[in-house]
């Protein structure tokens, strides 16, 4: 799936930034004075378009992710969800809240969501009609796999409706987090173009040596570290790793005990910004995790390997910095 995703990301950049959207030209385009004819968009809008089109390519196909009506319908529905939820939470009086948000919810469901569903359904029907036709058999997507699994009952209306609904529901579930991460990455690169050029050179070298595919990802440790540092400072979720205590109470090393049935999670931002756990926690250090991986290797008496993943949990970061 790497090649179609990369192709779609480039297509989105060409559409929004301009053709030949390499690192230098992209940064120069975004930083240059804005002429009247240039399209103006925020980094969030650009990140959203990249994530949405790329993720839709994985779920559906090239025709779906480049259908502007589908993209516009999805964005309208998505923004409506956020605004309806915000208004619901912020209205101070319960009865007034119900009076205002109930019509909004009905409009969101029966107009915007129905429009999105209808477009997705038309694509599912198109794929069914093309199933025995001339489609490229080498390209794989989730919809194709689902149709293969449902081969005996795929043509009935219930299955078609189910596939159409899952298309936009899975997109909603999967495209939001990358959008926030990408937006924060863009901001950091625009603030410090030197990082963008370093990451671009690493990516270019990885592609030249290993081609477009999964293999190149094992040789982009600087990019890996950059993404993790963005996640550390700007966590997508406020709480991570929700766990329920099962079977019997759980006792920590300091004697604190969680009774059976307790549900607990880890506050991402608090842990990431805790100076007792992370050195200089408020500083954006794009290559922090590469340095930590190097420390691990030096501690273990092994040379640093570029292809070694730089995965580190908070406890591993702490250990590498000698806090534990």
UniProtKB/TrEMBL annotation:
Q: Where is the signal peptide?
A: none
NAD keyword on record: no
- Which key words tag this protein in UniProt? Iron, Metal-binding, Oxidoreductase
Provide the cofactor list for this protein. Answer: heme
InterPro entries (alphabetical): Cyt_P450, Cyt_P450_E_grp-I, Cyt_P450_sf
- A Pfam family cross-referenced in the UniProt record is p450
Q: Does the keyword Iron apply?
A: yes
Specify the domain of life of the species encoding this protein.
Answer: Eukaryota
Note the Gene3D superfamilies from the entry. Cytochrome P450
- Gene Ontology MF: a single term: heme binding
Please report which protein family the annotation says this sequence is part of: Belongs to the cytochrome P450 family.
This protein's name: Cytochrome P450
